[in-house]
Amino acid sequence: MAHDPRFACGHLCLDFLATTHPEEQLDSAARLRDWITAAGLVPEGTPLDHIAPEWLVGFRELRGHIGQLVRTEPDRKPDSRPFDLSLARVNELAGAATPAPRAVRADDGALTRALDHAPDRAALLAVIARDTVELLTDPAACASLRQCAGDNCPIVYVDTSRGRRRRWCSSEICGNRERVARHRRRAGLARA
Question: What number is the average pLDDT over the span 162-172?
């Protein structure tokens, strides 16, 4: 069952991290192309036919490093080697040139965004890696990072709610599951 990508985590890199839940969403080159377009890494209509299945390894590797970085508090861990290795790799990937946009006239005369050429793997990974660097170096965003309180939900998001009391990645999904489970527990106790 294919799931639509979610883009509600507050940062591109966290939305990318969410591609593991509820199941692997980057399981083919076609699905990777779809995610890249839906995430806005490239303008709509950018040809991405050159993206091959072997690209998945690099994208999944980056996703693993992002998970290590946002789910670890390095200053509280006596051994921060995994964190440091992930940080070094993200910084390395962030150093590549990103796709260069340009303004072009559409058929109706309006200006639209396009790329000079199809982006390579390093350029697309750099966009996500740079967003990770932006997140990690923003003290306010880091202080607002939250892990979803839903059962078995690995989603990490930036809590921008009033009062910073958001508990779930999605009130409609994980929040609703929690409310239903609570209702069932209360109803079960009432019957007992």
Answer: 77
Residue (of 66, 73, 72) closest to 129 by Cα position: 66
CB atoms within 10 A of CB 147: 14
Phi, psi of 111 (to 5 degrees): -85, 140
Helices 55-70, 29-38: inter-axial angle, 10-degree rounding? 50
User: Residue 156 forms beta bridges with which residues?
Assistant: 147
For residue 155, with 0-12 CB atoms within 10 Å meaning exposed, 13-18 middle and 19 or more buried, which class applies? Answer: buried
The CA dihedral of 85, 91, 97, 102, to the nearest 10 degrees, is: 130
Report how far apart, in Å, the C-alpha atoms of 152 and of each of 19, 110, 148 are.
15, 46, 9
Q: How many CB atoms lie within 10 A of CB 11?
A: 22
* Per-residue model confidence as pLDDT tens digits over 77-97: 656 889 999 999 999 999 999
Per-residue pLDDT for 1 more than 50? no
Confidence band for 26, pLDDT divided at 50, 70 and 90: very high
pTM above 0.70, yes or no: yes
Give the whole-angstrom CA distance, residue 122 versus residue 27: 19
Q: Which residue has the tokens 């692997």?
A: 24
For the chain, how far is it from start to end, CA to CA, in angstroms? Answer: 38
Place of tokens 């750099």: 126
